[in-house]
Amino acid sequence: MTNMKGMKCVKCGETAKEARLSFQGHQIDGWKCRCGEEYFDPEQAEKILMLNRIRNKKFRVKLGRMRSNLIIRMPKELERTLGLEKGGEMILQATARKKIEMTA
Ligand SMILES: [Zn+2]
After folding, report:
1. CA angle 101, 91, 71 (to 5 degrees)
2. Distance from the alpha carbon of residue 30 to the mean position of ligand 1, in angstroms
3. What is the pLDDT of residues 16-40, one digit of tens each?
4. Where are the chain's structural domains?
5. Which of 3, 63, 67, 71 is surrounded by the most beta carbons within 10 Å?
């Protein structure tokens, strides 16, 4: 059905061409047909849906200790959705007396 160049539009039968499309406020890859029908890259669309599902959700985690360092366990949901991996780097920034912003 799909390939790098285009895909057949199920609405009109023409070939939809590769394009950058707007999906829930994000730009993702996909295919757009002359008839106006849009097809989103399913993987990229799924990532955005996953992100929207956990956006603003609060996760309660416990602090642990490894030798002299305090550590936190990253919730699986965040790991998967944000694509975090062991060995990856994060930036921590104290933004208030009891607030830390963490950026992947
Ligand atoms: Zn079409």
Report:
1. 80
2. 13
3. 999 999 999 999 999 999 999 999 9
4. 6-54, 63-103
5. 71
